[in-house]
Design goal:
It is built from 13 helices and two strands; from the N terminus they run H-E-E-H-H-H-H-H-H-H-H-H-H-H-H. It has 227 residues and is mostly helical. A hairpin with a 2-residue loop joins strand 1 and strand 2. Helix 3 crosses helix 4 and helix 4 packs across helix 5. The N and C termini lie far apart (60 Å).
């Protein structure tokens, strides 16, 4: 099916509709286009990643997700570039490869997330923050990994990172993850004061006074047992 497309026809299609009053496709239509191009994903990802059209770069980012996840690290530089691009919607779509990488290669992704969380740009750290919130909803992610990323990102001073990994994000998503696994799965929580406070807040929401303790029935540690 992808053979029917050309650079020109893809860009014409991207500009043929309006979305929220601006030229462009809806998210659903862009996802359908991604699927149509997926049989030749590597070709189109590399072709579209440098387009002047933001929608084309969004599609390139999603096409790269399974390729990078499948140990094709030639896409890593492009993923990082898209995650740091000027257009906020492209940055949003560029979080998908981070999620896919962890789901396919968790130990590789964890090592890179830790390294980038310590020394990468705020945009890359923000991509990790957004990815961690999505990953926390599923069963495959290791709680230890989530908390390690959160510890590093919680002390980040850049507001672009902080607002994407704030107390409510941690309280809502990380504690869903903890409650699903059971409290005994976690290490002592929150080395940083910011993360510790956020986790305390989330724990209080899920386990009010007189309510059950998370998971196994064991308290999470000093300061967390509210029974």
């Amino acid at each position: 099916m992808a053979e029917a497309f050309t650079w020109e026809s893809i860009h014409a299609y991207l500009r043929s509709k309006t979305h929220h009053g601006n030229p462009g496709l809806s998210q659903a239509k862009k996802i359908r286009l991604v699927r149509a191009l997926s049989d030749d994903a590597a070709y189109w990802a590399l072709k579209l990643k440098d387009s002047d059209e933001a929608g084309a770069r969004e599609i390139a980012a999603v096409l790269m997700a399974p390729l990078w996840a499948a140990e094709d690290d030639r896409f890593e530089e492009s993923v990082l570039a898209l995650a740091q691009g000027a257009d906020w919607e492209v940055r949003e779509w560029a979080t998908e490869p981070f999620i896919a990488l962890y789901r396919a290669r968790p130990h590789v992704a964890h090592e890179r997330f830790v390294r980038w969380g310590e020394g990468a740009s705020p945009a890359i750290k923000r991509a990790i923050a957004v990815a961690s919130r999505t990953l926390a909803k599923g069963p495959a992610v290791r709680l230890e990994h989530l908390l390690t990323w959160a510890d590093a990102l919680a002390v980040e001073e850049d507001p672009y990172v902080r607002k994407n990994l704030g107390p409510f994000a941690i309280g809502e998503q990380f504690f869903v993850s903890i409650s699903r696994r059971g409290a005994s799965a976690s290490r002592p929580l929150g080395r940083s004061p910011i993360l510790g406070g956020a986790l305390e807040c989330g724990y209080g929401l899920l386990c009010p006074p007189g309510g059950p303790v998370l998971g196994s029935g064991q308290p999470l540690g000093p300061g967390f047992d509210r029974r």
